[in-house]
Specification:
- The protein has 424 residues and is of the alpha/beta class.
- The chain has twelve helices and eleven strands.
- Helix 2 packs parallel to helix 4, helix 5 runs antiparallel to helix 6 (142-187) and helix 8 runs parallel beside helix 12 (405-421).
């Protein structure tokens, strides 16, 4: 009896570790999502569903939040969570609404497995007590009873083995069904993109899937997902960018754009995107190479602003700058205040005093975190803009000689926006 209890406890203890989801071949499944094919967190997921620029595939929701319909402590988060679920349910194919078998197709969690093991141990204990009573009733049959007890032990072990096999088969069937669904999605024809700020249409094979917190942590590498992960297509970028003539008379609404060259940190890029959305930047031009991809981290740090943004992927940064210069734009290179320029004083601006900056379409050039804007790109611009710090102002307080690119972007955008929208 003690032996059986020990073995049962051993199996129960093993299930308390991470639950391994196995592939059809028996190997461990991938535990991380493609960073460019998913978004996580309340605001990014809601923005992605609202903007309609990505094709959603599956919404993974923490199981307890799905069952409680988004009952979280913070009122604002609760409101956003319910809005996400409500919008996601409108994308479900006909006949697969909330609470359907497809939505509740959750792999066996570690708690369920442990509970089933505990129930099996209780059955074993009951069998042991009955066997003990029968042994006390007749000493002459002791040898036969011992043999019977040994046979029961083998049978119980076989039953437990069958139960474990049944759990493994359930996991395999669940995973096989999900892989079939994913294969169907890949085989479907491409769904047409819908306009910005319009909800996406009903998507074939879209599903809402419950997941444990541990599963979501594994998928996102313990990023702050807030119980939501949306599997979707990569963020779409545009190739051809329009360059309207900035010298046309009566320009009522100057355009403000940002060109990002070689910003490799997704945290910095996400902050730039968020600041751009706050200050009404018309679009972002992003260098295709040597720049952070527009992944889930960028969307999360931007608080979902990426999902509404217009982003152009630029092959030749130099040709892009030249096109704007030839169209009469202000093309301003963000440079340190103490760095000599070739533009002359009339085209070198301090962000705190932009009165002499022509009020017309403007392109702001941002360089990398460590080295700033490359020299040949600075030379192609027709002006420079800088921020003066304590060192430049000859203040006695100790200071650094530069700002983080994302912080500098916010300061520069505030100055440029105030100038371009000022009609006087």
């Amino acid at each position: 009896g003690g032996g059986r209890g020990g073995r049962g406890g051993g199996r129960g203890g093993a299930q308390r570790g991470p639950v391994m989801i196995r592939t059809l071949e028996g190997g461990p499944a991938a535990v991380e999502l493609d960073g460019e094919r998913h978004v996580y967190g309340l605001q990014p997921v809601l923005a992605a569903l609202k903007a309609g620029k990505r094709i959603p595939r599956r919404l993974l929701v923490r199981v307890d939040l799905l069952e409680s319909d988004g009952q979280v402590a913070h009122p604002r988060q609760r409101e956003l969570f319910r809005e996400v679920l409500q919008l996601a349910r409108t994308l479900l194919p006909a006949g697969s609404g909330a609470g359907s078998a497809a939505e509740k197709n959750l792999e066996q969690t570690e708690e369920e497995l442990v509970e089933r093991e505990d129930e099996g141990d209780e059955v074993e204990s009951s069998d042991e007590e009955e066997s003990s009573d029968e042994d006390d009733s007749s000493e002459s049959d002791e040898d036969d009873d011992n043999q019977s007890s040994s046979d029961e032990e083998e049978d119980d072990e076989g039953e437990l083995s069958d139960e474990e096999q049944e759990v493994d088969d359930d996991e395999r069937r669940d995973l096989e069904q999900e892989e079939d669904d994913d294969a169907d999605i890949e085989d479907d024809e491409e769904v047409d993109q819908v306009p910005t700020s319009q909800p996406a249409p009903v998507v074939p094979h879209f599903a809402i899937k419950p997941r444990t917190k541990r599963q979501l942590n594994s998928l996102t590498r313990s990023k702050p997902h807030q119980g939501l992960v949306l599997e979707c297509d990569p963020f779409p970028t545009l190739e051809e960018f329009p360059v309207p003539n900035a010298d046309e008379p009566d320009c009522e609404a100057p355009i403000l754009r940002i060109l990002v060259d070689s910003i490799t940190d997704p945290q910095n890029l996400g902050t730039v995107v968020r600041s751009s959305a706050f200050f009404g930047v018309e679009s972002l031009l992003v260098r295709k190479e040597h720049t952070s991809p527009l992944n889930a981290t960028v969307s999360k740090v931007s608080a979902g602003a990426l999902e509404y943004s217009t982003v152009y992927a630029i092959g030749s940064t130099l040709k892009c700058i030249e096109a704007h210069v030839n169209a009469g734009w202000n093309v301003l290179a963000a440079t340190p205040a103490d760095k000599p320029t070739t533009y002359g004083e009339e085209r070198t601006f301090d962000v705190s005093n932009l009165d002499s900056l022509p009020r017309k379409h403007t392109l702001l050039l941002l360089g990398s975190e460590g080295f700033g804007l490359r020299d040949h790109l600075q030379e192609a611009a027709n002006g420079a803009i800088s921020i003066r710090g304590a060192t430049d102002l000859a203040l006695s307080a100790p200071s650094l000689d530069s700002l983080n690119v994302s912080v500098a972007t916010g300061i520069l955008l505030q100055g440029l926006t105030n100038r371009l929208v000022d009609s006087e």
